[in-house]
Amino acid sequence: xxxxxxxxxxxxxxxxxxxxxxxxxxxxxxxxxxxxxxxxxxxxxxxxxxxxxxxxxxxxxxxxxxxxxxxxxxxxxxxxxxxxxxxxxxxxxxxxxxxxxxxxxxxxxxxxxxxxxxxxxxxxxxxxxxxxxxxxxxxxxxxxxxxxxxxxxxxxxxxxxxxxxxxxxxxxxxxxxxxxxxxxxxxxxxxxxxxxxxxxxxxxxxxxxxxxxxxxxxxxxxxxxxxxxxxxxxxxxxxxxxxxxxxxxxxxxxxxxxxxxxxxxxxxxxxxxxxxxxxxxxxxxxxxxxxxxxxxxxxxxxxxxxxxxxxxxxxxxxxxxxxxxxxxxxxxxxxxxxxxxxxxxxxxxxxxxxxxxxxxxxxxxxxxxxxxxxxxxxxxxxxxx
Length: 385
Ligand SMILES: [Ca+2]
Ligand SMILES: [Ca+2]
Prior knowledge:
Helix content is 13%, strand content 35%. By secondary structure, the protein is mainly β. Strands 1-8-11-12-5 form a 5-stranded mixed β-sheet, with no helix packed on it. One calcium ion binds next to helix 4.
């Protein structure tokens, strides 16, 4: 993958009238351990004042059709007048000269410098994860006598973040994305569609935005307790590792973190105790499941990126744990997990479906009790014995 690189440099001259005070310049000489540069991403198209810090450990799911506008923030620090050399006559006037340059790279897509320390990045049609990185070099000198060159101090800092572009899906196209077959979504405007669909067609509009899921992107961290792969386990295990394209609702990530909050407070779980048996399922995968005798509804929420089949599985035997401690593993244990999920929906301010189910049907994990949850926007509760 070719590396794209742009640089921005600006010199700043500050005249500061301080005899013995501290001068504040955009630099941080006091804490060399922490990189003084961080990255922020602009939220919204026109919210120039709204920037969100980017966590270097979290990948950013870029919305479809949007470039990322990212800026480097250089942590301000204090440079004391002690940095200035003594000069004859001890003038009280200090001069600070600061020069800073930022060098940006991206492992794919296109970079464009749009302002001081700000770039715009476009995936340019790419679907793979891209690392954006910046290196900032800054040097400054502090002198008492402008005619006299002072010693120069130089500092560098760097920051990086991973971007995962979205791929636009055309429902009227041939059902493929990046060479993978997603399939054809059912028509939510069909007059014969089930009543919940006919009454809420926008909820059943096919996702416009998909993300590439492969061996390298599956491990991208989206939140404290989720990677991209968390929400889209293989529908057909042991089929090899061809890329899939999956839709993930941002609200699903919010729900997942809320559910971890609830289980942590009620069960003190071991890491990884919550397990997703089924996440995103494409229309094509739904039809394949059907041919295997595993029917999902035509308008199943799994196809819209906001549904999960979940178990609590601390002992990692791919079956629900005995959550009510009665010595049996059955639908009553799913009821306990459903209670946690109910609380998590409330905590996250979300509404959706919760199905308490006795037996998961799939190419793997067959037979375990589980809970279905989706974020369709209105509450629905059901039980499948
Ligand atoms: Ca278990
Ligand atoms: Ca039990």
